[in-house]
Write a structure and sequence with these properties.
The complex is a heterodimer of chains A (453) and B (83). With 453 residues, chain A is α/β, with parallel strands linked by helices. Chain A folds into 2 domains: 34-53 and 314-431, Lyase, Ornithine Decarboxylase, Chain A, domain 1 (Beta Barrel); 56-312, Alanine racemase (TIM Barrel), CATH 3.20.20.10. Chain A contains 13 helices and 22 strands. In chain A, strand 9, helix 6 and strand 10 (168-174) form a beta-alpha-beta unit. The radius of gyration of chain A is 25 Å and the shape is globular. Chain A starts with a strand and ends in a 13-residue tail after the last helix. By secondary structure, chain B is of the alpha+beta class. Chain B has one domain. Chain B has 3 helices and 6 strands, in the order E-E-E-E-H-H-E-H-E. In chain B, the strands form 2 sheets. Chain B has a 3-stranded antiparallel β-sheet with strand order 2-3-4. In chain B, strand 3 (14-17) and strand 4 (22-26) form a beta hairpin. In chain B, helix 2 (43-53) crosses helix 3 (58-74). Chain B is globular, with a radius of gyration of 12 Å. The termini of chain B are close together. Classes of the chains: A alpha/beta (453), B alpha+beta (83). The interface between A and B is medium-sized, with 19 and 30 residues. Strand 1 (5-6) of chain A pairs parallel with strand 5 (54-55) of chain B.
Chain lengths: 453, 83
């Protein structure tokens, strides 16, 4: 019997030795066939395509490495899992098992944390939108409320009076840390005195218990030094409180925003090679705190709310090739079943995409489109990929942060999410949506029930 | 459309166009197709030949061959039959 050879579509590539082009260098030399020893082919066969895959082992490793990075440099450290980064219960509970508190930014997230079993006193409540009902609940539960604006401060004082509770509060401080843009929409500004003014209001009225100071200077920060500036400014406020009121705050919350290993769009070099490590952030923050003039009897607890850096590389999105096309200008385009509706971060990152089967050394400069009938549905504007055929599978890397919270039901339904546990057992931790799920929330008035066409 | 007569093709898939000085590389399937085009085989014959030797469906090969010829045309490697 004659064995037929493996087919690969024909490709002709012009050899150029002049300027580098926007497709950059080819980096994907090896196919990714397995995640944590589970074959990608088997995962897709069993759970469908597309499919989010999360590794419990990797999450725990990331958490432990981050904890170690800070604890070796500072005596008292506490992580709080940022729910908005990924609030699937299974993911949250891995972090809670490791010792993380919960950091939430809405009533919905707050209730989710409570339902997960997090004690109220271990929930940090951030964000500009906390309803009176949310605040009353948080006050009763002894949660740590980070005040975003004066209206919230006044409302909390009223709640304190009416409930006879003394809410535990911190203020969120925004500041110039030498980076652009300055996030001045959240909290009180350091430089113009708003923050000091808010702290004085809290200390003078005495209805609230000022327990901490909080900042969150930005997102996907590539400069550890900005954190050093922020930590020094918070330490300065703490020192002034100490001097003026003999009041020692219990914690300094440096927020999150540490860059993960993803590559931002427009970056020349891959994020894995250029982004700062968690150790660099830890070094900047802890050095600034230790070297500041703030010398309390007990060093304040250092709280970190990092989300992205702990989860991004612990999740992958598997997908399949729907079709190959040739664009009018001669570029190859490949359509996959992963759209921006489930891979929201495709707007920010040049995600690493790897084929999930063996391939030859031939590549084509490709535009990678999602399946949506929308012009914005572009996963990679330019990527050099091997010759993928219809039905071939691909792996999108570093998708753990924000995708499983910011995804939307748009045109297609959201896929399953599976977790590979520490013994390499696969669990479905979120089922795929069905038409019934979507229709459950809809109501059809009687007069619109029928029509003739 | 035919492949231009002066195009040089090596056994390893290196293609050179002496009129423009441009060079290209093709993969194995591309090389087979290119050699058959040079020998003036019809597209029908080329598809049948590839189908016999490789694991692929006829429509896929047809589509890929047409796309390949389009690309060669775009790279000015083809010429009209009367040229």
């Amino acid at each position: 019997m004659i064995t037929k050879k493996r087919y690969e579509r024909p490709v002709i590539k012009k050899l150029e030795s002049n300027m580098p082009n926007k497709f950059g260098m080819r980096t994907e030399y090896e196919p990714v066939l397995h995640i944590e020893d589970i074959a990608i082919k088997d995962l897709i066969t069993k759970y469908g395509s597309p499919l989010f895959v999360i590794s419990e082992k990797k999450i725990r490793r990331n958490y432990q490495a981050a904890k170690q990075a800070f604890e070796t440099r500072y005596p008292r450290v506490q992580f709080a899992w940022s729910y908005k980064t990924n609030y699937l219960n299974a993911v949250c509970n891995i972090f809670h098992q490791e010792g993380s508190w919960a950091e939430v930014v809405s009533g919905f997230e707050y209730d989710k944390a409570i339902r997960n079993g997090v004690p109220g006193s271990n929930i940090i409540f951030n964000g500009p939108d906390k309803s009176e009902q949310d605040l009353r609940k948080a006050v009763t539960n002894n949660s740590l409320i980070h005040i975003d604006h004066l209206d919230e401060l006044y409302l909390l004082q009223e709640i304190a009076k009416s409930t006879k509770h003394k809410p535990k509060v911190a203020i969120r401080v925004n500041m110039d840390t030498g980076i652009f843009p300055i996030w001045d929409r959240f909290g009180f500004n350091f430089e113009n005195g708003q923050a000091w003014d808010a702290l004085n209001k809290i200390m003078f009225t005495g209805t609230l218990e000022l327990v901490g100071l909080h900042t969150h200077i930005g997102t996907f920060m590539l400069s550890p030094n900005a954190y050093a500036v922020a930590a020094a400014k918070l330490a300065n406020l703490a020192q002034r409180l100490h001097q003026k009121y003999d009041h020692e705050i219990k914690y300094i919350d440096m927020g999150g925003g540490f860059a993960s290993r993803n590559t931002l769009k427009g970056a020349y070099l891959p994020g894995v090679d250029t982004n700062p490590t968690i150790d660099e952030f830890a070094e900047a923050i802890t050095s600034a705190l230790i070297n500041s003039d703030f010398r309390p009897k007990n060093p304040p607890l250092l709280i970190l709310e990092t989300g992205r850096a702990l989860i991004d590389d612990a999740a992958w999105l598997l997908g399949s090739v729907i079709a190959n096309k040739r664009l009018a200008d001669g570029r190859r385009s490949t359509i996959i079943d992963i759209g921006v509706n489930i891979l929201f971060t495709a707007f920010w990152y040049a995600h690493k995409v790897t084929p999930a089967q063996k391939f030859t050394s031939y590549t084509e400069d490709t535009v990678l489109y999602g399946p949506l009938c929308m012009n914005i549905d572009v996963i990679r504007d330019n990527i050099t990929l091997p010759l993928l055929n219809k039905g071939d599978q691909v792996v999108v890397h570093h998708v753990g942060a924000y995708n499983m919270t910011q995804w939307m039901q748009f045109i297609t339904l959201r896929p399953k999410v599976v977790l590979i546990d520490q013994n390499n057992k696969v669990h479905v931790i979120r089922n795929n949506e069905t038409l019934e799920n979507m229709l459950e929330l809809e109501a059809l008035p009687d007069h619109l029930a029928n029509f003739d066409l | 459309m035919n492949l231009k007569n002066n195009i040089a093709i090596s056994d390893s898939g290196f293609v050179f166009n002496p009129s423009s000085g441009e060079s290209f590389s093709v993969n194995q399937i591309g090389l087979e197709m290119l050699n058959m085009l040079r020998q003036k085989f019809t597209t029908e014959d080329i598809v049948t030949h590839i189908e016999k030797g490789f694991q692929a469906e006829r429509p896929t090969i047809e589509r890929d061959l047409n796309d390949f010829i389009d690309m060669m045309n775009q790279y000015h490697l083809m010429q009209d039959e009367d040229e």
